[in-house]
Amino acid sequence: MKENRQAAIAAAIILVGFGLVAFLMPHIMLALGDVSPFAAAAVAVLFVAGFFLVFWLRARSQRRKGK
Which of 22, 31, 33, 62 could make a disulfide contact with 40, Cβ separation 3.0–4.6 Å? Predict the structure, then answer.
């Protein structure tokens, strides 16, 4: 039960963090787009990849703890 609560809290913190960045993403993209469209695209790709990477690493960590 405690492990499920910790996992839910960690997931909520991660989602809130990524949600905040996603909320600010249009402003970030516009600011970077003025400098370089490629930089803006790179930040968007890194944001999406980072979202999946964090949850993949978390799942991998949880699997190792379960063994």
Answer: 33
Considering the entire predicted model, what is its pTM? 0.71
Quick one: pLDDT at residue 67? Answer: 58
Contact between 39 and 58 under an 8 Å Cβ cutoff? The reply is: no
Q: Please, what are the averages of pLDDT over each run of 10 residues along the chain (67 residues)?
A: 82 90 94 94 93 87 76
Alpha-carbon distance of 39 to 50, in angstroms, equals 16
Number of compact structural domains in the chain: 1
- The vertex-17 CA angle with 48 and 13, nearest 5°, equals 120
Residue type, 30: L
Distance of CA 55 to the CA centre of its chain: 8
Question: Which domain, by its residues, includes 30?
Answer: 2-66
For residue 47 the two structure tokens come to 């944001």
